[in-house]
Amino acid sequence: MAQNGNHKPAPNSPAPLRKELATLARKLTRDQRALFASNPNLRKRAGQFLTILLPPKPRRRGRPGRPDVTAAIRLLREFRLQHPEESAAEHWRRVYPLAIPNYDGMSELEQADARQELRERARWRMRHRKRYNTPSTGRRASEGTQ
Questions:
Q1: What are the sequence ranges of the domains in the chain?
Q2: How many alpha carbons lie under 13 Å from residue 121 in its C-beta half-sphere?
Q3: What is the pLDDT of residues 29-59, one digit of tens each?
Q4: Which residue from 4, 33, 120, 126 has the highest number of Cβ atoms inside 10 Å of its Cβ?
Q5: Does the reported pTM lie above 0.70?
Q6: Beta carbons of 75 and 95 less than 8 angstroms apart
Q7: How much is the CA Rg of the chain, to the nearest whole Å?
Q8: What is the DSSP letter of 57?
């Protein structure tokens, strides 16, 4: 329970970790004493910032990305740089066997469905990314100016 009213006992942490944290605290105290003295909330915010930097990190918002779509987008970019003379269709033909799992083991109809689905998903993600990663005008691209 609480020792002197508002402090909880420290959880058992490995000695090297405690030693490194104590060293960091002494260095911050030595280098930033006036700053911490002038702003009592800074101590709490420094602890929160350290917490943010340490693992485990929270997952990004939204659905997790599909590895096949991520791979397809990365490969498309690579092939566009490596083979600028080729058409988009030729780039996609290079991508399919590398991004679609078990592509060679599929029937022609299954391959066609997998190709179409991969193209749609990749195009959707790239279009969506463009829409929400516009230059900072304070607005999303979907919002028009009036």
A1: 15-53, 67-132
A2: 17
A3: 999 999 999 998 999 999 999 988 988 887 7
A4: 126
A5: no
A6: yes
A7: 26
A8: P
